[in-house]
Amino acid sequence: MHYDLSLRMGYSYDVPASGARHIMRLMPLSLTNRQRLVAGSITISPTPDEQSHFVDFFDHPATSFMLRAPHETLDIRMQARVQVESQPIAADFSPLLADLPEEIAGIWSLAPDSPHHFIGDSPRLTQAREISDYARSCAMPDLTAMQIAYALCARIYKDFTYDAEATTVDTTPLEAFRLKRGVCQDFTHIMILALRSLGIPAGYVSGFLRTIPPPGKERLEGADAMHAWVRIWCGETIGWIELDPTNNIPAGTDHIVVAYGRDYSDVVPVIGVLKSYGGQRAVQAVDVIPLK
């Protein structure tokens, strides 16, 4: 499946901002046997005074840029063409939960995809007993790590309501858990914490999701979305799988990966600092267009 992607992220400030330095992680990745970035570009307005590119710890290309002069708006646009491959359905050769620690201990690598980075607390995720108790209700002793992951994914989908007004980007997983409402970031963080509390390595995936309009309805320009889902390590034989608790499905050809991390803090699309005061407003529009 081939897609043309376009993303616009716009910011306007009540008072002109200056001395702004930002880091972007917006471009889809090229991943062996998963997806290929055919072409891509990012434009920034105003034109940055400084711009550089680097690869972060998790092997993601990132762009750093600086705007010295006062500016009332910041406009970032990304365009890309991506090829996404269908993923085969993997047979469940993952270990029972009781046997998973031995397999993790047998991994000596500290490479970016090592399960050791995804088993403990991370900057935005610390263990919460309520979430741990919730996880244990899905962890029957005769289930494999993969079966538990699928069971938690389905349970979160059933128990939680998607509500874009209920939470913000800074809402903690425990707050969203108690509300039983939120968005993909909340459901992803809750599922990661639940899995880690059981000793199953899990991480955050940032990307794009193609949305399909209801039957008889026109597709709305800009109505697609950046999305988040969960990456789970299911033992040496299976390795990593990806599940989407917002939709209760495995990540498939409609899921386009931008970045992997321990939690949202590792994959924030645009982050930075600037000098200003007063408020700011942000707009985002995404198009994920399949090519025939």
From TrEMBL:
InterPro entries: Bac_transglu_N (IPR013589), Papain-like_cys_pep_sf (IPR038765), Transglutaminase-like (IPR002931). Transmembrane segments: none annotated. Pfam families: Bact_transglu_N, Transglut_core. Residues 176-247 form the Transglutaminase-like domain. PANTHER family: BLR2979 PROTEIN (PTHR33490:SF7), BLR5614 PROTEIN-RELATED (PTHR33490). This is Transglutaminase family protein.
